[in-house]
Amino acid sequence: xxxxxxxxxxxxxxxxxxxxxxxxxxxxxxxxxxxxxxxxxxxxxxxxxxxxxxxxxxxxxxxxxxxxxxxxxxxxxxxxxxxxxxxxxxxxxxxxxxxxxxxxxxxxxxxxxxxxxxxxxxxxxxxxxxxxxxxxxxxxxxxxxxxxxxxxxxxxxxxxxxxxxxxxxxxxxxxxxxxxxxxxxxxxxxxxxxxxxxxxxxxxxxxxxxxxxxxxxxxxxxxxxxxxxxxxxxxxxxxxxxxxxxxxxxxxxxxxxxxxxxxxxxxxxxxxxxxxxxxxxxxxxxxxxxxxxxxxxxxxxxxxxxxxxxxxxxxxxxxxxxxxxxxxxxxxxxxxxxxxxxxxxxxxxxxxxxxxxxxxxxxxxxxxxxxxxxxxxxxxxxxxxxxxxxxxxxxxxxxxxxxxxxxxxxxxxxxxxxxxxxxxxxxxxxxxxxxxxxxxxxxxxxxxxxxxxxxxxxxxxxxxxxxxxxx
Length: 471
What we know:
This protein has helices spanning 2-6, 18-31, 41-50, 67-77, 92-100, 113-142, 156-169, 185-194, 214-222, 239-242, 258-270, 296-301, 307-313, 330-344, 354-362, 368-382, 401-406, 413-434, 439-446, 450-459, 464-468; strands at 10-14, 34-38, 55-59, 82-87, 105-108, 147-148, 151-152, 175-178, 204-208, 223-224, 236-237, 247-251, 272-274, 281-283, 287-292, 316-319, 351-352, 387-388. The chain has 471 residues and is of the alpha/beta class. The protein has 3 domains: 2-111, Rossmann fold (3-Layer(aba) Sandwich), CATH 3.40.50.2300; 127-321, P-loop containing nucleotide triphosphate hydrolases (Rossmann fold, 3-Layer(aba) Sandwich); 324-468, Orthogonal Bundle (Helicase, Ruva Protein, domain 3). Strand 3 (55-59), helix 4 and strand 4 (82-87) form a beta-alpha-beta unit. Helix 6 (113-142) packs antiparallel against helix 7 and helix 18 packs across helix 19 (439-446). The radius of gyration is 26 Å and the shape is elongated.
């Protein structure tokens, strides 16, 4: 089946060493690819004019025209062609620089047969996804889904999310899910897993990386050997072993230390790892999905996140919109949560009151769907009527900012941002006061995680000395 797929792809090998050229030719022909060869850049350019090429495998160091020159030519003239660079002088810096300029990947000499096969397979899968995208666009334009797996929403932005899930689910590609806290990144990860016929019956393992220290996180992910540290009274399987054949979802990937980033990069590249305190190399075939509410490119610029790891995890990315950008979905979410929590609490509640509905629709929901769900759950518990009033919602005073916000939406995006910041700061201060400045409790009431609250407190210059006296 793989050979049939690969036979549709044409690969151009560019290398001035005949033995390497011929060796790669044989490897790729056996896999089923259509293979062309060139001994220098000039010859490669001529072949690109004559044949349809999907992937170029080129040495970085060539006479006259280098591999980077070929990459530049391709990106300017034939951007659909993927380029893999081969180097015997490959520092991480030069390889990452090449990927920044558009290279699909890189390999170092001596060439590892398995590595080149894995990289090519990933590229083919990615190209197949793009082809499926084109085929499904017409279908999506005609079909609007109100939900997908456990995800609620029929807005255009959510239709795009469903579309990407459809395309990526049957592949082994690593997926990066980004979006603000509370937008449903965990639900999307599970939807990808459940939509994969080969993995849906296997384990789905979720790890909240930001909640664990570096030592605990390493042990949790990779396992540990008996006696490897104090308290390690027996051998323990890691999450990568438990997720064998299934999916591992790493939430808050930005919390990884440099040491753990290096180990994750190795898993992504070679599928291998060792337990803490153990020398035995183990393999995993778990599908890896990662998520973050941070902007990873900013962390890369600050040298807090490895650039080569960023490129490895960002094979396919899904950007989840905040709730304020998909207001068409709020009514559906409200109905869903009212039904769910009314049933759980044995109550007959049908809807929000007119005033409560108006407030819920106009509120900005900084905590997104998680905040909306918490608000509905609390209201269902508190109400004694069949209809939820705004006074039934715990901490309902924070919603009063929605009126002033809605009157300023006609202003420019810059002034709107300023308008939004003041009530958000006041809201955070109000909830902190209600919670006696306990950040864990305040974050839960706001529908955001502790890290997000901490970052917002820094952004709005909320005094930290006061926090320390209350914790």
